[in-house]
Amino acid sequence: xxxxxxxxxxxxxxxxxxxxxxxxxxxxxxxxxxxxxxxxxxxxxxxxxxxxxxxxxxxxxxxxxxxxxxxxxxxxxxxxxxxxxxxxxxxxxxxxxxxxxxxxxxxxxxxxxxxxxxxxxxxxxxxxxxxxxxxxxxxxxxxxxxxxxxxxxxxxxxxxxxxxxxxxxxxxxxxxxxxxxxxxxxxxxxxxxxxxxxxxxxxxxxxxxxxxxxxxxxxxxxxxxxxxxxxxxxxxxxxxxxxxxxxxxxxxxxxxxxxxxxxxxxxxxxxxxxxxxxxxxxxxxxxxxxxxxxxxxxxxxxxxxxxxxxxxxxxxxxxxxxxxxxxxxxxxxxxxxxxxxxxxxxxxxxxxxxxxxxxxxxxxxxxxxxxxxxxxxxxxxxxxxxxxxxxxxxxxxxxxxxxxxxxxxxxxxxxxxxxxxxxxxxxxxxxxxxxxxxxxxxxxxxxxxxxxxxxxxxxxxxxxxxxxxxxxxxxxxxxxxxxxxxxxxxxxxxxxxxxxxxxxxxxxxxxxxxxxxxxxxxxxxxxxxxxxxxxxxxxxxxxxxxxxxxxxxxxxxxxxxxxxxxxxxxxxxxxxxxxxxxxxxxxxxxxxxxxxxxxxxxxxxxxxxxxxxxxxxxxxxxxxxxxxxxxxxxxxx
Length: 637
What we know:
alpha/beta, Rossmann fold, 6-stranded mixed beta sheet, two-stranded antiparallel ribbon
């Protein structure tokens, strides 16, 4: 008998096949259980190693021993005429067949149950034609201030990508998972057929154990993407799934085991599968946009995620705002070394420069070296120029151009870019321009644009900032209150939101509301006792004057805040004196315009008192017409 025939007789082949099937099933079960109980990375590695070692041992056992009715005996001690190996072989055949059935069933469930109807069938919700920027063609943004946006019959497919869970506990693994999430988000956002919730809002739910339908309802989306990332050295395991929000049905799911070198191909593949499941037809041009949407470097997107984290933390306080933001800038610089076309990093770098300009011009920051203000202004202009250069044509580039003009010495194109920025379509990031429009008579036009931005990013306080400001000056203060409260009730906290809510209540006449009567946040732009507003509106000017004098004589006094307090008190001459000192400094235009939300009192100064700002406005062809959200009794201009 040949060696091959002997292997067959002793059931070595059957044992090997049965062992392989059993090992595969054990690994699938272990993968699910280990992920559920968040076992350390080495646990799976240990199981695989044990199973690999066991394979040759099983083959050796099958060769050298035989299972008999009397127990296990050495094969050489058994008379071949008495051997029950053929009977054992038949039993092994049945085990193998049963095992294969189970394997096929598991693979079928994974492929068909989780994949849903597949890309060959229409998605559950109807689609609509979309503009290149991602907003429905000619569609009016939602008219309600509530965050739960109802879909119309020509509904654009919408999706939120939730932060992927880091299943490993390495030093940077959580940032790695966040980076991978944002790469997928950005790839999908580049497709005009999809409305993709911006990072600010989708990442608000990081670490929150909330039902998918509840998250989707808050964000106003039909679908949610979630997943997990397990990183071990150079190996990465990624699971991703697309869920239909209305019933929790898994439309698509997959698992990827890759090296770090392959990670960017994986994120593109995930985004492409999601898009195709939602009936988006991907031609080569769209695939190229998806490839170009990411950072493309592991260390760079880890640095970028650290920068975003520091950026968000810095915006939750006002003291030393620019210094706190400088930490974020260091990370953004690392990311930009590897990916110089990363527009988002440049926008956030410019924001840090803007905060520093605000502090230096206003006097919020007392110490400055000679020429620092001009140097910071030059840096900011350079960041805007590079962001404009690398951003795609469309609404975001127009917004960036508008904000760059605000910090420039040439306002001849300001009106043009205000109107372009307010055109429908796209989900742009608006920063310094978010509250600009109401000062030049564009409040009504700004409302639908701000609603559009909130549709894309409902928990971004800058969208709330612009919307509430426009609502208040157009006589819709109650709606402004509703907008701020909706966001705050969802757990989105920042001193800006808290102060916006305070002003909205004042504008609506809610002088006895708890949000008004309390002292409010201990941080923020209200460096004075904010009860000053309420006392003036109640007619207690003497009490308000005491609060003003306390601030003016205190260590926090500065021209910017002092100007606004003087305006509320109706002290026109004093307000103009402070405004004139601000106007004499480089970069002061944006400080004079955007700062007055603290008083919401309209023009806080006479334009003739600020010749530099007046020259720029005359150059733009615009009309200086800041409307008041709050009417203070003593202010008569």
